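Incident review: delayed structure delivery

Summary: a single-chain prediction request sat in the queue longer than the usual turnaround. Root cause was a stuck worker, restarted by the on-call engineer. No data loss occurred. The affected request and its eventual output are reproduced below so the record is complete for anyone auditing the incident later.

Affected input:
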Amino acid sequence: MNWDDVRIFLAVARAGQILGAARRLELNHATVSRRLAALEEALNTKLFRRLTTGSELTAAGERFLDFAERMEADMITARAEVAGEGDDVSGTVRIGAPDGIGVAFLAPRLGALTAMHRDLKIQLVPVPRSFSLSRREADIAITVERPTEGRLVAGKLVDYTLGLFASRAYVEQNGLPKTVAELSGHRLVGYVSDLVASPSLDYAAEFSPDWDAGFSISSSLGQTEAVRAGAGIGMLHSFIARSMPELVPVPAAKPIRRAYWLVYHESMRPLRHIQIVAGYITRIVESEKALFI
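Output delivered after worker restart:
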């Protein structure tokens, strides 16, 4: 069995289509199709069903995926051990993170790591969505829930809180609600509920059972900017809101607590550049833990 054929199989399985895999591998569509056919012939079974929307794993393909990922992990381990652990750290690490911690916390701090390791490249993707580590959409992900499925390594980074905040200008014009019931008399800023990346981020009812936002934004930083501009009262990350003197807490409801987790695929464990970045993120979060609560 040819390892290159297995590598192509993994790319198609993760992309869900031959064309997408070909682009990632920088190969042409015909080459990918031909190598897949060779692998299926070697295994004497069909690994994919070709659909108009892409390629779907067959039952045999699902079983082979587990073996292929183990082979990939062994290859990664072998390369890491053969390369050794010299002083130089090189490679590219893509970090997927919610936009709150990604932009407000990681973006100002990760540059120091690339300054220490000139051959290390970091790609930060701070958007309000989830990332598939098994599909290699990111090498490291910051999540708001501990993953329960897949061959993943997960460690809790830190607890954080969200609270109600308003701008000083808004409070001067409208006053502060003293109870949850009084929130209905105020303009509210919230999130787009059907676009939340995780059920744990659908938390409006924990602040008020009747939360009805007139302005909803599918980005935590967007919500912060709207509240900052006086659009209304919003549910904001406390570690972001407290850094803005024009924002004041609204005591009508108590803050709620959530957690960030650092996660990477088990096959990434032997790679030194992944461990360097994961360790650095863990250390800087721990050193500024008080910021989050």
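Verification: The chain has two domains: 3-83, 90-293.
Action items: add queue-age alerting; document worker restart procedure.
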